[in-house]
Amino acid sequence: MAHHYQVDTLKRICGEFVIASISPHTVSRFLVSAARYQEQNVHRACTEYILKSASAVMSTPAFVSDMTSDELEKLLANDRLGSISEAALFERVVKWARGQLARADDPDGTGAASAAAATMGGAPDPRLKKLLHPLLKHIRYEFTPYHPLCLC
């Protein structure tokens, strides 16, 4: 509302409140909202939090449900992304992508979607490849053991 009515003091206070409320469970939604409303201070604070706490953030259901592909790609491209191994990063990005497909297949959240949303007849869903393609180029595979790469 503060953004809509361009009330600068209210925008500042709301931004400070959001920054003080950042946690692994809230930061993905805050980051995406900050990008949408061009709130640079909140976006910067969220990015810094994720860069320092990537493992904790990427383990939450909120990461799967709230993070956008664009924001995730920016995070993955950042060389300062820490607190997570490349193998775990790969696994969490694949889990995120599968979650995005499940949400697309069940937009009302009723659970009526097929349990095999990310596979079609045992073969990888082509939508999974399309979703992962711009993201996986940022994984440093030289630091990743081969076994997590079999998740797709």
What are the SSEs and their pairings?
Blueprint: H1 2-5, H2 8-20, H3 27-36, H4 40-52, H5 54-58, H6 61-66, H7 69-77, H8 86-105, E1 119-120, E2 123-124, H9 126-136
Antiparallel strand pairs: 1-2
Describe this structure in words.
Helix content is 60%, strand content 3%. With 152 residues, the protein is an all-alpha fold. Strands 1-2 form a two-stranded antiparallel ribbon. Strand 1 and strand 2 (123-124) form a beta hairpin. Helix 3 (27-36) runs antiparallel to helix 4.
Question: Main traits of this protein?
Answer:
152 residues; mainly alpha; 9 helices
What percentage of residues falls in helices of 4 or more residues? 55-70%
Mean pLDDT: 87
User: Helix and strand succession?
Assistant: HHHHHHHHEEH
Q: How is the largest sheet built, in terms of strand order? A: 1-2
Could you list the spans in which at least 5 consecutive residues all have pLDDT below 50?
Answer: 114-120
The total beta strand count reads 2
The secondary structure category is: mainly alpha
The end-to-end span amounts to: 41 Å
In DSSP terms (H or I, runs of 4 or more residues), the helix count works out at 9
Q: Give the number of domains.
A: 2
Using only CA atoms, what is the Rg? Answer: 17 Å
Strand content: under 5%
